[in-house]
Design brief:
Chains A, B: Keywords: Hydrolase, Metal-binding, Protease. Chains A, B: Pfam families: M20_dimer (PF07687), Peptidase_M20 (PF01546). Chains A, B: One of its GO terms (biological process) is proteolysis. Chains A, B: It comes from Gluconobacter wancherniae NBRC 103581. Chains A, B: GO terms for molecular function: metal ion binding; peptidase activity. The structure is a homodimer. The first copy, chain A, is of the alpha+beta class. Chain A folds into 2 domains: 291 residues, Zn peptidases (Aminopeptidase); 123 residues, Alpha-Beta Plaits, CATH 3.30.70. Helix content of chain A is 34%, strand content 21%. In chain A, strands 1, 2, 3, 6, 7, 8, 15, 16 and 17 form a 9-stranded mixed beta sheet that branches. In chain A, strands 11-13-9-14 form a 4-stranded antiparallel beta sheet. The longest helix of chain A has 18 residues. Chain A is globular, with a radius of gyration of 23 Å. The N and C termini of chain A lie close together (9 Å). In chain A, 58% of the residues are buried. At the A-B interface, strand 9, strand 10, helix 7, helix 8 and helix 10 of A face strand 9, strand 10, helix 7, helix 8 and helix 10 of B. Strand 11 of chain A pairs antiparallel with strand 11 of chain B, so a sheet runs across the interface.
């Protein structure tokens, strides 16, 4: 199948412009479903979000179904849909689950009551948990498909859709599901919409991702909470043990200290580093939105390099003893931390989990025990530069935004990219329209109306551009 | 006034034995009042506990009142009561407030529904928050006074009583209250019942106490919670900053690293250390009740020495990032820790607070700020060996328990001991009947029925013994 005539694409783009208010309405309906995958109390809401997508895809003429997953908890269902058509076959991936909303009190409106607000700069943004990550981004693709169907009755390429519900909770069902259904899900290329633009004006395709290895560490000492006066000094303090361990994970240069941690890690070529430095010349400008000024990580790398192509270690949560108002002179029995390592291509999550646990065990003093709980792991990823689909997609993005699209790295983990390669042998093109200030995972998460609308138009163009890839 | 005849004391002791069930009933009534001083929601309960004591003291013929305190929050009232009589004038101190009850789920029965249970060893114990610390202990003294009044219509010495409601929350109203009411509260000696026996069989008077300096540390970095993938490595992580700081507070020998921390700290004389080692020859036996085996603190000192006469640093609470079920890839904006330093005589809480805060500030990296919240401070304390009241009290205890009473240190802070010396110029005799396994400040706090009953009998003897101190 060859690319449709330019006039055919123009008609679709015009329809997207005319239908934009309805598109926002559909997204708001979806955002009202509190599909928090990591909290068991929201399991039914996750199913409701899956069912919402199944119905919407069916309304677009897809053969659409939800599928149970059986390999591990929490077991939120997959949504699988197939459209008709010939030629290039794309498999679109997204996720319908969202992050928890704490701290609730920092939300200006309830997290699941979406608001369309105008920010200080006069930009219209959609505010809700999941507005950007990933419900808003997924809907840019579905709205593009809807426009093609409503204008021409068909899509320029053959489209299959796979939506999961465990992306935000380190779920481990996606890979076995892909493997068990490889024949059904096999396509020519995978399209993922879960990433950001280079900046407000510059579209990009993310060609490398950091993976992640996450572990929970529980340190236990006394058999019960003790009085810190009666026992203080003589009784092992699990909070102190935990802090002593966590303080050894990085050295004074910001490098992770685990043996072999950097084995296989490659530094990007000079051309790539030069391009990134041209796009992001100023660390403090890049960190300003976060209220920060200095790249705090590995010395010798810019903020963009530290997040796009260098592995790291973060403490994501810590808890122990008395955390309430006032003061309690307790010497607690246990303390807990949630730790994650961001990984780049070449690093092995399983080996790094072993190295981390061995490091912690080696530092345990007498009377302290440790229990580990794994929270998922995925390797880093990079698109093979040879992918025939990369250039047409970059060009289509450039046409929509009026500036050349760039290839980028991404600090976040999108396990699917590595897993579709492992299970289906396919490259994933990560095309996203999020912005650095979308506050994903934070209170008042937002998605620009421009991201949503021009993102939809971008997908309409990309679908056309991929039609004649040989 | 001279000591009453032995027969007079015997009659009182017999009455205590006969009335013991009623005494337990009165204590249970008191234990049902959830007077948690550090939680604002329980302010009314603290007042209710104060009022309960005012009424009980009035029923013993004391001129009894509750007094507002005005110097600082939370402002729980004092209970002041004066009995009639001549000669030796004792001021008894205790506190009616209790610790929080978290974690609730570890209590076998609700914390404020007192239970009389028989433990595995066949010992009868009273289980409830405050059973030992300090409601049960205070009632041993009041029941002794009740017995003297009911048998003889008067007490062998002149007794005043002062009960406060901010001992468990680092309150700062006691000292100014003592100073403002010094003329009214002046006596010959202060009696305090808030300490433990040397062991099950051996009574003791605590002649030295550790003080405490408590501070809350809040580290803030980003202006809001960040996605740890997008920002991990480049953004300062306040949990990591906090752990790095807390890990530097003690060295590998368990010594506190703050400059000048040990200035003025004296090691007990060899005789005292020998007596303690005879009483507690085995660290592991001493720590067994806590489920521990090794003295984890300052090298070169036994577990008893580490807690009774050596200063220390404890982390009492820590909190930051995502602490719930599952995993959240958040790079949080802030992290908090509650830290306390146990102090011995010779150390200055104010100087140590300054040294601690300077130490934390010196370790702060770029993009991190710190906020400190003080939670009270009191110096260590020791009874001047010359106190004329010490020997008679030790002898009275020996008579009741059938073994010589010993002088002890105590790892806990009882600010009143230092404050009555400062405000009233009086020594405090700390006579207590708690046991190491009372689980004070922990779930299932308990007080032995033997501690309660023989403690009451002990006070009846001490009141008689102090009558003829010149």
């Amino acid at each position: 199948m060859t690319a449709p005539a330019p006039s055919a694409l123009d008609a679709v783009l015009n329809h997207i412009d005319a239908d934009s208010e309805n598109a926002v309405g559909r997204l708001f309906e979806l955002l009202r479903i509190p599909s928090i995958s990591t909290q068991p109390a929201h399991a039914a809401d996750c199913r409701a979000a899956a069912e919402w997508f199944r119905k919407d895809l069916a309304s677009l003429g897809f053969s659409s179904s939800t599928r149970e997953v059986k390999w591990a908890a929490p077991g939120h269902p997959m949504v699988v849909a197939h459209g008709e058509g010939e030629g290039t076959h794309v498999l679109f991936y997204g996720h319908y689950d969202v992050q928890p909303t704490d701290p609730e009190n920092l939300w200006r409106a309830p997290a699941f009551e979406p608001q369309l607000v105008t920010d200080a700069s006069g930009r219209k943004v959609i505010v809700a948990r999941g507005a950007s990550d990933d419900k808003g981004q997924v809907m840019t693709f579905l709205e593009a498909c809807r426009a093609w169907k409503e204008v021409h009755g068909s899509l320029p390429v053959r489209v299959s859709v796979l939506l999961e519900g465990e992306e935000e909770c380190g779920g481990s069902n996606l890979l076995p599901f892909l493997k068990e259904n490889a024949a059904e899900l096999k396509a020519d290329v995978v399209l993922v919409c879960d990433t950001a633009m280079a900046d407000r004006r510059t579209p990009g395709i993310t060609t490398s991702l950091r993976g992640m290895m996450a572990d929970e560490v529980l340190i236990e000492c006394a058999s019960h909470d003790l009085h810190s006066g009666v026992y203080g000094n003589a009784a092992a303090n699990p909070i102190a043990v935990l802090c002593n361990v966590l303080a050894t994970l990085r050295d004074s240069d910001g490098r992770v200290t685990l043996p072999g941690f950097y084995d296989g890690v490659k530094v990007p070529d000079d051309a790539t580093r030069a391009q990134w430095r041209e796009l992001f010349p100023d660390d403090s400008a890049l960190l300003e939105e976060a209220g920060l000024s200095i790249a705090a990580g590995e010395k010798g790398f810019t903020a963009v390099e530290q997040t796009w192509c260098r592995p790291s270690c973060e403490i994501n949560g810590i808890s122990g003893g008395y955390e309430g108002e006032g003061f309690k002179t307790v010497l607690p029995a246990k303390a807990m931390a949630k730790v994650s390592f961001r990984l780049v291509p070449g690093q092995n999550p399983d080996l790094i989990r072993e190295a981390f646990r061995a490091h912690v065990r080696a530092l345990l003093p007498a009377d302290a025990t440790v229990t580990f709980t794994p929270h998922g792991g995925s390797p880093g990823f990079e698109v093979s530069n040879g992918s025939a689909y990369l250039s047409p997609a970059l060009n289509a993005l450039g046409d929509e935004w009026g500036v050349p699209a760039v290839t980028m790295g991404c600090g976040g983990s999108i396990p699917v990219a590595g897993e579709v390669r492992e299970a289906l042998g396919l490259d994933a093109l990560m095309v996203g329209f999020a912005q650095a200030d979308d506050r994903i995972h934070s209170p008042n998460e937002q998605y620009g109306l421009d991201s949503f609308h021009k993102g939809t138009r971008s997908w309409a163009r990309i679908l056309a551009a991929l039609a004649d890839v040989k």
